[in-house]
Amino acid sequence: MNPILRNVLAVVAGFILGSVVNMGIISISGSIIPPPDGVDPSDIESIKASMHLYKPIHFLFPFLAHALGTLSGAYLAARLGASRKQILALVIGIFFLLGGIMVSNMLPAPSWFTVVDLFIAYLPMAWLGGLLGSR
Predict the structure, then answer these.
(1) What does the alpha-carbon distance between residue 66 and residue 85 come to, in Å, rounded to a whole number?
(2) In total, how many domains does the chain have?
(3) Whether 54 contacts 36, CB under 8 Å
(4) pTM score > 0.70 for this model?
(5) Which among 54, 61, 70, 105 has most CB atoms closer than 10 A?
(6) ∠ CA 22-23-26 to the nearest 5 degrees?
């Protein structure tokens, strides 16, 4: 297979896997740590209106979803890529970081969470996934 095509497909596969992992963790999070009373986690307006009710523990699973989604996607991209595996992994990290920035602009999360999420869950996890997937 052409190496460029293989690299493109590796990034697409990594993005899909990372998205599935992210959404899988988000979908089970409410059954492990229930949202505050009266919050509909499937409705962004309900989340926005009730953000003041969220405690730090409620941010654990969103962080894990972002970090593990990025890590798994970056790992797969690096594992499947033909060359420049670390760059492929970082491309995944950039895609997910852009998504994280968009969500942080949509939801009024506490500043501490936004900083931790944007600075730890994306590019460092992509770098680690690339390192592990390049072996």
Answers:
(1) 21
(2) 1
(3) yes
(4) yes
(5) 70
(6) 90
